[in-house]
Amino acid sequence: PTPNLDRLAKNGVRFTNGYVSGPYCSPTRAGMLTGRYQNRFGHEFNPGGGKQGLPIDQVTMAQRLRALGYATALIGKWHLGAGEKMHPNERGFQDFFGFLGGAHTYFPIQGKEIMRGNKTIEEKDYLTDALAREAVGFIDKHADEPFFLYLAFNAVHTPMEATEKYVDRFPNIQNKQRRTYAAMLSAMDDAVGQVMAKLREKGLEEDTLIFFFSDNGGPTMVGTTINGSINFPLRGSKRQLLEGGVRVPFVIHWKGRLPAGKTYDHPIIQLDVLPTSLAAAGAEVKSEWKLDGVNLLPYLEGKNKAAPHDMLFWRFGDQLAARKGDWKMVRYDKSGIHLYNLKDDIG
Description:
The protein is of the alpha/beta class. The chain is built from nine helices and 15 strands. The protein has helices at 3-10, 25-34, 61-66, 127-142, 164-167, 176-201, 243-246, 273-280, 297-300; strands at residues 13-15, 18-19, 71-77, 95-99, 114-116, 119-121, 147-152, 210-213, 250-253, 262-264, 268-269, 312-316, 319-324, 327-331, 338-341. β12 and β13 form a beta hairpin. The longest helix has 26 residues, at 176-201.
C-alpha cells in the first residue's frame, strides 16, 4: 500500500508509457537535469570515479531556475560526479544534503557519512526519514519565494535496510527480502506524504508542479543489485533496454492547473521534466540549448492532441532501442535486433 503516492496519482496525471532515457542511475539523472539525451555529451554509463561525471559544460535545471530567481536544493542522491567542480553546489544547487555516489547505506556507518554542502556530517536518522525531514525544512524556509526542490530518494535501492517501524507493517510477507523492500517503499511513501502535507500547510499545493518517477525499472536479473522488485507484466530488468528497464511509474501533479485523475497513454520521457518546468516558470526555451525534451503542458491540458514525441531513442553500450507509436525496436543481447508491438504484446 502506497496511499500518498496513490493520492498524488489520483490528483494528477498518471502515465502508462512513462520512460527514462537510461536503464540505471546516473545517465537518467544526467538526462533529466539537462533535458537532453545524455549520450549527446558522453554520459552513457555510471561515472567510475576520478574526473568522471556530468560534464561541466552542460547546464543543469538548477542553474536554469537559479537564473530565474528560484531557491534550489538537492536532497538525496547525486551520482553525477564527486570532483570539486561537479559538486551539486557548483551545478546550481544552493543547498545540498545527501551523498555524492551511488548505492548508500540507510543507517549510520563509518566512512558512509552524509554531506551537508561540502561538509561531512553524522546523521543519526534512518536515511529516508532524514531526506523527508530536510525536504520539509527546505519548503518551510522558502515557502514565500519560488523554489526548485530535487528530492532524490535512494529507496528502494540496495542495501536492503529498514527500521522495525516499517518492517512491522508487513507481517504477512514471508520472504525477508520482499518484506524489507515493502518496508523501504512504505518509508518513502510516508516521506512523500510529509512533503505534500507541508505544501498544503503552506497553501502551496495548487501552485507547485510535482513530478514523481523512478530512475529505472526494478533490478531482477542476476548480477544486478537485486532488491525484491517485480516488473510484471513488463519484460527485462534494470540495466536492460527492454521495457522492464526503462518504462517506469510516472506521475505529474499540479493541482491548480492540470486535470485530476487523468491517465495519459502517449509515450513521454524524463527529458520532458526540464522544458515543462521552465514553461511553468514562464521561461523561454532557446533553440541553441538543443533540448530533446518537450513542454508537456499543452498536451496534458488538451490543447495539443498529438503525441509529444514522434520517436524515443536509447543507447546503452551494445544495447539500443527506439520507439515509434506502438512499435519498439530493441537489441538487448547478442541475439540480434527484435521488433515488438507493445499494444499487442506489453511483455
